[in-house]
Amino acid sequence: MPDQRRTAREVLALVTDDGSFTELPPPVRESRPDGPLGWQGYDASRARAAERTGEEESVVCGTATVEGARAVLIAFEFGFLGGSLGERTGDRLEEAYAHAREHRLPVVPLIATGGSRMQEGMVALTQLQRVARQSALTRAAGLPQIAVLRDPTTGGGWATLGAGADVVLALPGVQVGFAGSRVRPSDADPAAYTAEAQLTAGAADAVVRPQDLKGVLGRWLRLLSGTDDRTSPSPAPVPAALAATDLPATGWAAVQRARSPERPRAHAYLDAYFTTRVHISGDRCGGTDPDGILCGFGEHLGRTVAFAAQTGTGTRPAGYRTAARLIRLADRLGVPVLTLVDTPGAANDAEAERQGAGAAIAEVFGAVAGARVPVTTLVIGEGGSGGALALAAPDNTWATPDSYFSVIAPELAAAILKRPKEEIENTADQLRIRPQDLVELGVVRGIVQNAGQEGAPATSPPPP
């Protein structure tokens, strides 16, 4: 069934476990005839909407389980005055968020709205402030909010319940944008107001087919609202190395090994470490870096661990901002963080500078430094300058035998020092960038070994 035709009850049935939905009793509000503005015919419009939809307001709120995970769900009924927000809508939303905090439950808005209700004027618009306040209180309580964008998601509903959520999922092809279809410029490109466009712009995390929505939402809820001790989580265990176990003889040998196309990359480490995982996408500022960094949450030995993993390319500003977003969210939810360092350095082209490379890297440095949850770092390849160091935990960084970490790439160091190309290999040695050098210098705690090597410890000290 196309999303445009799904009622609030139908979308609830789509995502919740059979028989698990319990509707919250709606708050009682005494209103003057025809609403706060005395808008002639408003009461009649509401009565017709109620008769047509079987609902008394534009949202249905309650608790349910989604693949066994409990949550508060807020389902919009677009057939009721376009899913618009009015005073009574605000009452119901406030009650739903308060119930979520009281019972320590995540909040899942299933949004389909055209925005604020015209017949209530500014009174309707101020409901967005109520929603924002409830969302902020829920965020401060350490509870996740996962929005599902239906058709349409526009106006203040998108700007609060949607874009303000921790994770944003969207159904394919649905209309998403702050400007609704009747108030856009006449020459506006309609493709810009879609779920797919928001995903490309970094404002949504995934576009999910209706038949997959329950499974995806259930996975997110289980990972973000588990039963771990979120007050003082233990650090994420260090992953085992996936390849070489012998150590490089020279600095240049370390560089060559780290740059080898055969070396295991982030995808291989994440596959080996997690039994299941989900990804966030985008910096919420208009950008994504899908080729430069992978961020999300996964399950490792029954625990939720957040991850930010560089993929071996120059990380772009949007990638750093996405990583900072991930670390801040994990910190708020009390989830330990694993970072995988692998980059020749931050992207340094002119476009990266225009996109705020320095400020984006600073965000990550600040997120790691300010995190209250433990951060574990493994250098799995190239550790190029500050673009790599930003993701490294100051007191809990480890290295694989096929990695290196350097203040700058040896070639660039030689160029800065005005040395001939013939001196690059010697420069690499002088920089002391091998894993065993890094341990001796106190930059990393140890060198991880391949778990498949019989009799090998998980970590090893440098050789004498």
N-to-C CA distance: 68 Å
Q: Please give the largest β-sheet.
A: 8 strands, mixed
- Secondary structure class reads alpha/beta
Q: Shape, please? A: elongated
Work out the helix count. 17
Share of helix, binned = 25-40%
- Beta content comes to 15-25%
Describe this structure in words.
This protein is an alpha/beta fold and 464 residues long. Helix content is 35%, strand content 19%. It has 17 helices and 17 strands. The strands form three sheets. Strands 1, 2, 3, 4, 5, 6, 7 and 8 form an eight-stranded mixed sheet that branches. Strands 9, 10, 11, 12, 13, 14 and 15 form a seven-stranded mixed sheet that branches. A two-stranded antiparallel sheet has the order 16-17. Helix 11 links the parallel strand 11 and strand 12. Helix 15 crosses helix 16. The N and C termini lie far apart (68 Å).
